[in-house]
Each structure stands twice: as C-alpha cells, then as structure tokens.
Amino acid sequence: MKVLASTGRDDVAMVYIVQYDSGKMVECVESVQPPIPRARKWVLLVSTLFGCPIGCAMCDAGGHYEGKLTPAEIFAQIDFLIRRRFPDGQVPCQQFKIQFARMGEPALNPHVLTVLEELPQRYAAPGLMPSLSTVAPRSATAFFDHLLRIKRAHYARGNFQLQFSLHASNEEARQALIPVKTWSFSEIAAYGADFYRPGDRKITLNFALAQGVSILPDALLRHFSPDLFLIKTTPLNPTYRARENNLVSSIDPWQEGADCPTLSALRAAGYEVLLSIGAAEENVIGSNCGQYLKRHLAASTLLTDAYRYDIEAHADGLAPS
Questions:
Q1: Which residues are registered as beta bridge partners of 7?
Q2: Domains in the chain, CATH or no CATH each
Q3: Reported pTM
Q4: Exposure class string for 70-102: b at 16+ Cβ within 10 A, else e
Q5: What is the pLDDT of residues 116-138, one digit of tens each?
C-alpha cells in the first residue's frame, strides 16, 4: 500500500488517499477531538469497501463499487496510521477508537469480522475500542450473527461501540435517505436487545439532522428502549451528494452550544442524547462522515463550505485535478 495524497491538520484530522497493488484506492483518517489530547482519545477511520453500493443521499463515497477489502488491506490502513504516530506499534492512548466508517458499509464485508477477531492480539493498545457504524442491510444477517459472537468473546464490558444510522424516525423517510433494503426498526431493536449486556455501552442510534426530516420521540419509543439505546445527533455534513439532493443541515456546526427543539424533546422522552459536532474544521478538511476527497477532486463545481484544505500529492502520488 502506498500513500498517494493527504490533507488536513495534525492537531485536528489528517485524511490519506492510499492505493493498493491492484491499483484500487481508498481513504483513511486519523483524528483527535480538541481540546481532548491524543493521549486521552485517538480515533482512526478505515475503509472496508472499494466504494460503496448503497448510495446514501448524503454520502460522497457512494455511487460506485469495486469490491471488498481483504483483512490484509484493512490492516494495512491501521498499521500505517499507527506506525506513523507510534513507530513501535504500541498505542498508549486511554481510548483508542478504530471506526470502520470511512468508505463502505462494513456489514457488506465479512472480512471486517476477521479483523475484529484479530485486533486485540495484534496491537499493544489497552484502550482499544472498535466502533462499527451500519445502516443494517437486510442481506447482512449472517454478518450480524457473527458480530454478536465476536463482541461477546473479545469486547465485553463497554469495549465495543455499535451504531445504527437511521437519520429519520419514519421508516419511509429513512428509505429515501438510505436506498437499500434494511432491517426494520423492530428488527434493529430485537438485535440490540440480544447485543446489549450489563456494563456495555448503550447502542447508538445516529441521526444526521437535515431540514424537513422529522425525528419524533414517540415513533422511536415504540421500538427503542432508552435503557438500551442512546441517540447521537450530528449536523448534516457538507457533501456533494447532500447538495445534489437538496439536503441542508438543521444545525450549524460553527455555532457554539448548538441545540434544537428536537434534542430537547428526545431528552424529555428519556433518551440520553449526544450532540456530536466535534471540530467544525473537519468539514473544511474533508474528514467528517460522508465526505470523500476523491469526489471533491473530480467535482466541476466546488463546495464553498468544505474541502478547502490543500491536498498534498506524495511521491508518485495523486495530483489534484
């Protein structure tokens, strides 16, 4: 694997475009969450598919698909990011999160399960916490069955973060945003009840808050117990796909202390609610969820509120268009 290009800021986030011997490319990211120091929390985001077949309405990484990464190809991203920061391979961070969330729906690649099984033995990282974010494709039931066994064997007592991306409390609206057959809310809730054990982290229901898309507490309460599930809300990140689909964030990521009536209503319903904005500069870098540098390089009309950092081409690397 070789690094073709990179962009970002070392004290916020760095995005890398990498290429394998096959000629196929993916992206990987390392980030911190200021003002939290890296020693307390360090986050890697790795790709699991070459492209993504789902094509979510707000995600720049969809629209093409060239296959699954092997375990070795996924580990190559992790090894590169770790060795760049910690050459001896030992990660002393209090929380070391590896998110299978940069490019591709991870539940469509069974090799992710192999990586999850091997991670605890591969690295000296006492703070290791894998994080898997999924739209719950209906075709991936065998994946989730195996994931449950891995979590129980290797990641008990809060050492695993599972997130279901819903984005709407109405299943029809969700289908419009995520154009693939998925588990129903009832099926996600039933799986969550099997997955969760005392001492675990609550299972996350993720919503990128878009104008005109309602998040109704009563609709969620019919399926998701606040004892098992928490709500994570984020701004809708600025992407080319969001612009093409006329999706606009209902929260301004640059506004400190941003909140909205939706969040207050969810809290009143008994849910633990996280408003995850992070560093708004990540939008400018292009490291946030749904953003994808290769799409930016190919764009003819550029976004004005994202991807504004220079992209540095490495030796024999990818030159910006």
A1: 15
A2: 2-313 (3.20.20.70)
A3: 0.94
A4: ebebbbbbbebbbeeebeeeebebeebbbbbbb
A5: 999 999 999 999 999 999 999 99
